[in-house]
Amino acid sequence: MTTEPSGTPGAKAESDSSVEVSLFEVHKKIQVRAVSGIFATWRWILVWFTQLLFYGLPWLTWNGRQSVLFDLAQRKFYIFGMVFWPQDVFFLAVLLIISAFALFLFTAVGGRLWCGYACPQTVYTEIFLWIEQKIEGDRNARMKLDAAPMSPRKAMLRGSRYAVWIAVAVWTGFTFVGYFTPIKVLWNELMVFSFGPWETFWIIFYSAFTYVFAGHLREQVCKYMCPYARFQGVMFDPDTLVITYDEERGEPRGPRKKSLDYKAQGKGDCVDCEICVQVCPTGIDIRKGLQYECIGCAACIDACDQVMDKMGYPKGLIRYSTENAIAKHWGWKDILGHVVRPRVIIYTAILSAVTLAWLWGLATKPVLRVDVIRDRATLAREVEGGLIENLYRLQVMNVSETAQRYSLSVVGLDKIEIAGEHTVEVPAAANKEILVQVRVPPESGKTGANVIHFDVKSLNDESVAVHEKATFLMPR
Amino acid sequence: MQRLLWVLWPSFIVAGVAEALFFTLINPQELYLFGEPVNFSTIATYSVGFLGFWSICAASSLFTCFLQRTPGEINGGGCGHPPASPAGNKTA
Fold first, then answer.
1. Minimal Cα–Cα distance from B13 to chain A, Å?
2. Looking at beta carbons, which residues of chain A come within 8 Å of B2?
3. Phi, psi of A382, rounded to the nearest 5 degrees
4. Is residue B82 part of a domain?
5. Residue B56 belongs to what domain range?
6. CA dihedral in degrees (A187, A191, A195, A200; nearest 10)?
7. Which of A191, A293, A325, B82 is deepest in the core (most CB within 10 A)?
8. ipTM over 0.90
9. B60: distance to nearest CA of chain A, Å?
10. Is A90 helix (H, G, I), strand (E, B) or coil?
11. What CATH number corresponds to the domain at position A398?
């Protein structure tokens, strides 16, 4: 990395580089300079963590089936030991609320941590940038290549970059579809090239999505497409940690000879090397203050710290700080002392309350559900022995992970009984619809609707039982 | 091109939400098409459903885009550009 102040060949080439007509506006193609440092390391840790999870999870087996499978065909979502049915959509809704409040809380305390480290857009851009850099070289080399006329070498480099990008994108698309169709089935289909038409469509669709977003749209997604980026500002307050350039310390910026006493010349700590601009994935100059384009990736902090080291100045000319801390010259102790404030307390309270309720709900999620529907075709009829019969369709849903036998009984009227089968067997995580004939002597109930209850009890586990209300119609 | 994305992107998001809500509440096997039960595979029904939602939402976005254009812009083009991004108008 060079510390030569301004006018680096890189900066020149960037201003000269042709303007690319892109999807959203006339914008200069941003060639991001690679950066290393503590925050870059953290970002890579999160890239590895999230991607090992994403690419790896569908291959894990749990109880003889895929550990995480959103089985759309069977309308069941499997997440390790848990099985979610459409009736459980409530848990998904609450999970979204939890995620939203977690995001609000993190944003209020630490700014755009999500954007800078964990957002898939950031993560895939990071992976695609890494590929670009390995194939086409560093920022200067890439800008030279951009400016150079087409040549066999350029075609070869571009071609291999796109090929590797496509490979990663297709693997991502394959994995994505593998969350909805068992991935091992999909893999076997891949081996003999026999994907179903819709599987092929979605793999291509998601691959193209990844490729365009991470390869070409990049920062434009954050700037123009992301709804969160538009409103995250409302979660900020003067005590929110943001990436800040210490203007007081840095200005007046300018080049200087390392041997001279710059302070005597009236200069600040900023050597105006522009490296903070070159490493910025959204192409902004953090020295102009906080801008909505800043995704909080801290690449400029890493870059500036390296320059400060080389110059022998203290680190942190650009650093995580808060508006108040900069204005009032606070240290970390004061900043941390201001983390606890009404906004943060409220977010934390809501987040913990909703999370606890959600976990409690999950822990006590019933493992048996019964829906009773009266048969629509016949209301009531008289059968042998003068008994009155009503027909019911019982939807018995075994939400547990093992096959179960259930006993059926009915209560609520004198001498009420079920004709026929009194037990039902339901395989693991399946439902069974059974037709139940309930018979009552005519004198047992009043004319019209009578309240009765079905009792469905597991024969394997006594604690599993459902008491479900129904009505019995007694004809005149 | 940017207008195309303005139409396709928000409708994509909303179609995703609509798809999730619709098929959570309604089992695709309980649907009827022209009086006949739908007999595609479930995945096909979901996919067609999503693309259907997407196109309907896109139509709505397209209409919004159309209505946002002032009479003055009709000839010049552009879909509700905020005045702050004059650079964007040049590509339209």
1. 10
2. 23-25
3. -95, 135
4. no
5. 2-73
6. 80
7. A325
8. no
9. 18
10. helix
11. 2.60.40.10
Q: Write b or e for each residue in B19-44: b if 16 or more Cβ atoms lie within 10 A of its Cβ, otherwise e.
A: beeebbeeebeeeeeeeeebeeebbb
**Total beta-carbon pairs less than 8 A apart between chain A and chain B:** 45
Residues on chain B touching A96 (C-beta within 8 angstroms): none
> Model confidence over A238-250: pLDDT tens digits?
889 999 998 888 8
Rounded distance, CA A216 to CA A158, Å?
13
Task: Judge if A248 and A320 occupy the same domain.
Answer: yes
- Distance from B55 to chain A by nearest Cα, in Å? 16
Q: CA-to-CA distance for A102 and A125, rounded, in angstroms?
A: 24
Burial class (CB within 10 angstroms; exposed 0-12, middle 13-18, buried 19+) of B91: middle
Please judge whether A72 and B24 are an interchain contact, meaning their C-beta atoms are less than 8 angstroms apart: no
My answer on whether A65 and A150 are in the same domain is yes
Other C-beta atoms closer than 10 Å to the C-beta of A55 total 15
Question: A61 CA to chain B: closest CA distance, Å?
Answer: 23
Number of domains in chain A: 2
- Give per-residue pLDDT as tens, A253-276: 888 877 777 777 788 889 888 899
Which of the four pLDDT bands, split at 50, 70 and 90, describes residue A359? very high
Residues A15 and A113 in one domain: yes
Confidence of residue B75 (pLDDT cuts 50, 70, 90): low
Contacts of A233-237 with C-beta under 8 Å, sequence gap 24+, read A233/A292, A235/A104, A235/A107, A235/A108, A235/A343, A236/A107, A236/A108, A236/A111, A237/A108, A237/A341, A237/A343
CB contact under 8 A, B47 and A202: yes
In this structure, the answer to whether residues A338 and A398 fall within a common structural domain is: no
Domain end point (choices A315, A334, A365) = A365
Interface test with A, best of B43, B51, B54 (most A CBs within 10 A): B43
Question: Could you tell me which chain B residue has the CA closest to the CA of A70?
Answer: B43
Q: Are the beta carbons of A80 and A357 closer than 8 angstroms?
A: no
Nearest-neighbour CA in chain A from B61: distance (Å): 15
Chain B CB within 8 Å of residue A19 CB = no
pLDDT at B81: 52
Interface of A with B in 81-140 (CB under 8 A): 86, 89
Instruction: Tell me the residues of chain A between 25 and 84 that have a Cβ less than 8 Å away from chain B.
Output: 25-27, 72-75
Is the CB of residue A78 less than 8 Å from the CB of residue A68? yes
Are A107 and A119 contained in the same domain?
Answer: yes
Q: Which domain holds residue A76?
A: 1-365
| Among A331, A328, A304, A324, residue whose Cα is nearest residue A316 | A304
Measured between beta carbons, the chain B residues lying within 8 angstroms of A27 are 87
- Residue B92, in any domain of the structure: no
Instruction: Please indicate, yes or no, whether residues A361 and A372 belong to a single structural domain of this protein.
Output: no
**Co-location of A189 and A59 in the same domain:** yes
**Residue contact B47–A24, C-beta within 8 A:** no
A357 to chain B, any CB pair closer than 8 A? The answer is no
- Which residue, among A251, A8, A4, has the nearest Cα to A139 in the 3D structure? A8
Phi and psi at A475, nearest 5°, equal -75, 165
